[in-house]
Amino acid sequence: MQNFDYMTPTRLIFGKGSIEKLPEVMRPLGRRVLLAYGGGSIKKIGLYDSVRQLLSGFEIVELPGIQPNPKYDPSVLEGVRLCKAHEVDVILAVGGGSVLDCSKAIAAGAKYEGDPWDLITYKVKAQAALPIVDVITLAATGSEYDCGGVISRTETNDKIGYMDPLLFPVCSILDPEYTFSVSARQTAAGCADAMNHTIEQYFAADTTLLNDGFCESMLKSLMVNTRKCLDNPEDYTARAEMMLCCTYGCNGILSLGNSQSGWPCHGIEHALSAYYDITHGEGLAIITPRWMRHILSERTMDRFVKYGVNVFGIDPALPKEQIAIRAIDATYAFFESIGIPMHLREVGIDESRIDEMARHIAQNEGLDKAYAPLSEADIRQILIDSL
Amino acid sequence: MQNFDYMTPTRLIFGKGSIEKLPEVMRPLGRRVLLAYGGGSIKKIGLYDSVRQLLSGFEIVELPGIQPNPKYDPSVLEGVRLCKAHEVDVILAVGGGSVLDCSKAIAAGAKYEGDPWDLITYKVKAQAALPIVDVITLAATGSEYDCGGVISRTETNDKIGYMDPLLFPVCSILDPEYTFSVSARQTAAGCADAMNHTIEQYFAADTTLLNDGFCESMLKSLMVNTRKCLDNPEDYTARAEMMLCCTYGCNGILSLGNSQSGWPCHGIEHALSAYYDITHGEGLAIITPRWMRHILSERTMDRFVKYGVNVFGIDPALPKEQIAIRAIDATYAFFESIGIPMHLREVGIDESRIDEMARHIAQNEGLDKAYAPLSEADIRQILIDSL
Question: What is the dihedral sign for C-alpha B291, B296, B302, B308?
Fold first, then answer.
């Protein structure tokens, strides 16, 4: 087992009606609030009105219009400007992972005199950040329980993940009822996102029985509960369990002591959504089984066998390779069964920029150091197989 | 799923050599340190010397001699006196769960003008507490990752669990090598303690697939790794995984959203060790299978079936009741196989005070509200069955 240094100090307030605790949570953090959100969905479900009403004693500055794959320009830059101009005390992010990721970049940028891109690219280490509170409306990224975010810069096709312990939300408010109106397509993409977070950590060296069991439980629960959510979007228990699962995706608790896996599917997918602005979870679902096929070898075989037996219940008496291939096929079949478009062409990506993307990924994502090291040629092949 | 409000802000520094980070962890917390520890074991393994050397720039006041089932008088009272007299800034607990539990009571008591018993019994809510850092030498209680402790008061046979979010350790330093010298008997008792923590949370209503999977992984990992530790006390990987498992025992992460289970075995065991000062983990191991037999019914059957199939690999095609009984027998057999004395008589408890203990438990532990409610007669029967 590897040494680790770990914490997740965020408070989780979970369940229906949790929003009522918002004023109590916000009060010690200050009176001037940046309210960050995305499109109109929080208005449609009444959450925007609830928040404004609960925070009637606060001074609120709004940053609306944060997009999926949140953009450095304008969203991060505009948020930083607003925080500085209005001397904001605390950021309240209301929405999905994109709103929260963007808010994290703003929180650090607001306390930094230079170009916030310095922080995101680790050229400069942040010395302080505004506190963040969030109200989550989409079960997917796990940003509500980690200290990282992913920011896209359109003009350079960069999509960069950055992390800093300063950026743990102080408190995340999670009410599964806010996810009732999430579309089938977004529900499936959220599931794929969280499943891939788990898979990225499961396929590693030095794993423990404990971590393997945690990951397998996550995957099984996500599959069962996503199906229930798709069958009945207002199934509270299923939405709740899915929301809880997603929370654990990226804070490291699924892989404490494991060797670094390199998060290869994320490395590849970040380029896809940077170049084409596709839905992150869909990109991951498309890449995952192709990546699996590509890295299947004598060395990785036992991981796939364990995955197949424990997650999909494949007969352990079968030959190892057969178990592994069945497990990969089952992964593909599950994503397809929940309605995810399983070919890059279906989400608007053709072969024209594959070479360019493969080069970009190989140069920027460090996948030559992944659990199963990937060269530029490997990455290119995985992309071609995904077309 | 039930609503919950959860956090565990403690930083975990895990792995061999972690002690080197102690000065960096302590420095921001202050210069005057109460160093709390138990018997001589931390001197025998060289940890005491390491700590004194690493903290050579600090002012250290010592509180040695904290016993298992830590005592209000003298340990808590003496610790509070020392903290006040020396204006201590931070408590450093070095040892097992008892040292840490005692330190938590001291941390709260040091910031309170009245009798610290008021806090432990919740007569008064603590308003502040000294910060706590710990270095753990025994994989068992999980106190290093929760905000609770258990304190015994000899003259009244009270053994009281108390919790306060103020009492989360700031940082827990976990080096599995410090557990190499733990005796076989204490290793087994630590395993039983952590297994019971898991079982107490598993047998509940409203559980999720996710929590069930987490608990089942904990139990399987604890059994496999404890055997390895007993076979080879210096098996780093096994000691490490056991240590990590124990960490999750009591901070709630195994049962977020579950209905309250009531922790019945703990309720019963607290009386056993308050009246007879036995080893907590051994008391739990003795009680657990008898409690299981006692609560097995049509209503609880499915829980036992899931437990038997998923934890012990019992054939799911068997009749339900047979699976349940085999699972209970397997629980007993496992504890026995790791050398735990499985009868109360073997740890010095006879029938003479059973009526008195049953009454004490029924009056103080609220087990009539447990997952499977227990009356005084039920408790008495479980104790008799455990003789």
Answer: positive
Range from A31-45, A83-97, B149-163 carrying the lowest mean pLDDT: B149-163
Q: Which residues, in sequence order, are CB contacts of B158 under 8 Å at separation 6+?
A: B152, B274, B364
B264-296 residue pLDDT tens: 999 999 999 999 999 999 999 999 999 999 999
Q: Quick one: B366 exposed, middle or buried, by C-beta within 10 A (0-12, 13-18, 19+)?
A: middle
Reading the block at residue B305, the tokens are 């079936």
Residue-wise pLDDT tens digits, A112-161: 999 999 999 999 999 999 999 999 999 999 999 999 999 999 888 888 99
Residue B258, classed as helix, strand or coil, is coil
Other beta carbons less than 10 A from residue B123's beta carbon: 10
The pLDDT tens digits for A5-25 are 999 999 999 999 999 999 999
Residue of A nearest to B4 (CA): A14
**Which residues contact residue B270 at a Cβ distance below 8 angstroms, ignoring those fewer than 6 apart?**
B150, B159, B160, B161, B361, B365
E-assigned strands of chain A? 4-14, 32-37, 59-63, 90-95, 132-136, 148-153, 158-163, 171-174
Closest partner residue to B1 among A218, A241, A257, by Cβ? A241
The DSSP element (H or E) to which B152 belongs, if any, is strand B148-153
Rounded to the nearest 5 degrees, what angle is found at the Cα of B36, between the Cα atoms of B31 and B39?
145
Task: Tell me what the mean pLDDT of segment B115-134 comes to.
Answer: 97
In the sheet that A32-37 helps form, which strands lie side by side, from edge to edge?
A: A59-63, A32-37, A90-95, A132-136, A171-174, A4-14, B4-14, B171-174, B132-136, B90-95, B32-37, B59-63
Q: Is B170 on the interface with A (CB under 8 A)?
A: no
Our measurement of the distance from residue A203's CA atom to the centroid of its chain's CA atoms, rounded to an integer in Å, reads 18
Spell out the domains of chain A, with CATH numbers in brackets: 11-178 (3.40.50.1970), 184-385 (1.20.1090.10)
Q: Do A216 and B218 touch (CB under 8 A)?
A: no
Enumerate residues 282 to 311 of chain A having a beta carbon within 8 A of any beta carbon in chain B.
none
For chain B, how long is the longest CA-to-CA vector? 66
Q: Which residues, other chains included, contact B247 with Cβ-Cβ below 8 Å and sequence gap of 6+?
A: B12, B142, B144, B145, B172, B174
- Rounded Cα distance between A23 and B234, Å, is 52
For residue B91, give the nearest of B36, B164, B31, B12 by alpha carbon: B36
| Alpha-carbon gap, residue A240 to A225, rounded angstroms | 9
Q: Using one digit for the tens of pLDDT, what is the confidence trace for A121-134?
A: 999 999 999 999 99
* Contact between chains at B4 and A12 (C-beta distance less than 8 A): yes
Report the C-alpha gap between A29 and A25 in whole angstroms: 8
Task: State which amino acid sits at residue B309.
Answer: V
Number of residues assigned to chain A? 387
Mean pLDDT of the residues in chain A? 97
Tell me how close the Cα of B222 comes to any Cα of chain A, in angstroms. Answer: 9
Query: Could you give the ipTM of this predicted complex?
Result: 0.96
Dihedral sign (CA A298, A302, A203, A279): positive
Nearest to A136 by CA among A52, A226, A247: A247
Least CB-CB distance to B214: which of A3, A214, A256? Answer: A214
Optimal mutation site among A209, A245, A256, interface B, most CBs of chain B within 10 A: A209
Please name the residue of chain A whose CA is at the shortest distance from the CA of residue B219: A210
